[in-house]
Amino acid sequence: MPRSKEQFEEMRKATREKIHSAAMQLFVHQGFGSTNVQDIADKAGISIGLLYRHYKTKDQLFQELVAYAVEGLKRNIAFFESGQSPKTLLTQFVDEVYSDMIHGEELAHLLILIHQSLLAGAATASESYEEILRVNARLLDTTAQLIRQGQQLGEICSGDAQEMAVFLYASIQGLAEMKVLLKCNFTMPSPSVLTAFLFNGRE
Description:
Blueprint: H1 5-30, H2 37-44, H3 48-54, H4 58-80, H5 86-103, H6 106-121, H7 127-152, H8 161-182, H9 191-194, H10 196-199
Helix pairs in contact: 1-2, 1-6, 4-6, 4-7, 6-7, 6-8, 7-8
């Protein structure tokens, strides 16, 4: 019986998800330069011809993964600008980071991919490189503003809000890299540890 258009679309989506997962793992663990399209096809369990039907080049695949990660950063910005209590927003954000880090590898891989893209793009000043810089700067500023609001409300400890925002993201980035390096020996700090410098045990 011929497959329907919907079935073909589901198959296409499933194949792209396999490719994304395989590519992320290889780019993170082997590096972009040391990964070739055959490696990705083998890891995804598909033929190289099928991979090429979805992506013409390895660079196109890498850029799509980076764009996906950047969209996640943009969603965080929108979340922080939603007008809820700063402490509520930051607590929920850290809880989600904690959950993502202990239940899978995608968040860690996406953060490392963004880092790799920045290092590679620094030499070329590509359009995607400039966008990542803009989005990262906006996320940092939005988070610092949220911290200031929380300080004014008495929800967040005193201190330089920009420095506190930098420390938060540096901690998450470092944990992502440690998760990849340490594998099964990695222990994710609890949300209360991650937010100790923000809330300091306050109710």
